Amino acid sequence: MTKILLLSDTHGYMDDAILKHVEKVDEVWHAGDIGDLKVTDAIKNLKPLRAVYGNIDDAQIRTEFPEHQRFLCEDVAVWMTHIGGYPPKYSSRILPELNQNPPRLFICGHSHILKVIPDKKRHLIHMNPGAVGRHGFHKIRTMLRFTIDGNKIDNLEVIEFDSR
């Protein structure tokens, strides 16, 4: 079983409250708009990290992290990108590949709105952890924690922080 912490839209912000949650998992996944490599460095000092760049990320971040990551976590195919939309309103750039080769778990950031939506048409779960940074229109900072055990995605928890 792998315990995952999923976060996005840090916009350069990291604090001890976030890092306490990092310590409790096996891996951390960041769905873009990192904002500053200090964020990912702090995470990598504690746990393995998978990340993608977002639309606000500079050339240095884009050199370190890709736009898309497709990988297996145990027996679950995962696709993580920053701007992907959500069921049924996926980005037109994503939709052809999503229809042809859907993952079991599709992860996006960008909207600053936490969503977990089953896409029954494509037999996948869409996750957006919302935004954990202090920049943006969101009122509550959020992340997701869950487990992957073989092909099972389970134990989903929403982590909320005080308002920005």
Q: Name the poorly predicted regions.
A: none
β-sheet strand percentage = 35-45%
Strand order of the largest sheet: 3-2-1-11-12
Largest sheet: 5 strands, mixed
End-to-end Cα distance, whole Å, is 33 Å
In DSSP terms (H or I, runs of 4 or more residues), the helix count works out at 4
Mean pLDDT: 95
Helix and strand succession?
A: EHEHEHEEEEHEEEEE
What structural category do the secondary elements indicate? alpha/beta
Shape verdict: globular
Oligomer: single chain
**Rg estimate, integer Å:** 14 Å
Annotation, overall tally of beta strands: 12
Instruction: Give the % helix.
Output: 10-25%
Topology:
Blueprint: E1 2-7, H1 16-22, E2 27-30, H2 37-44, E3 49-51, H3 59-64, E4 68-73, E5 76-81, E6 85-86, E7 89-90, H4 95-100, E8 105-107, E9 114-119, E10 124-129, E11 140-149, E12 152-163
Parallel strand pairs: 1-2, 2-3, 5-8, 8-10
Antiparallel strand pairs: 1-11, 4-5, 6-7, 9-10, 11-12
Primary descriptors:
single chain; 164 residues; alpha/beta; five-stranded mixed beta sheet; globular
Give a description of the structure.
The structure is a single chain. The chain is of the alpha/beta class and 164 residues long. The protein has helices at residues 16-22, 37-44, 59-64, 95-100; strands at 2-7, 27-30, 49-51, 68-73, 76-81, 85-86, 89-90, 105-107, 114-119, 124-129, 140-149, 152-163. The longest helix is centred in the N-terminal third of the chain and has 8 residues, at 37-44. It is globular, with a radius of gyration of 14 Å. The chain starts with a strand and ends with a strand. The mean pLDDT is 95.
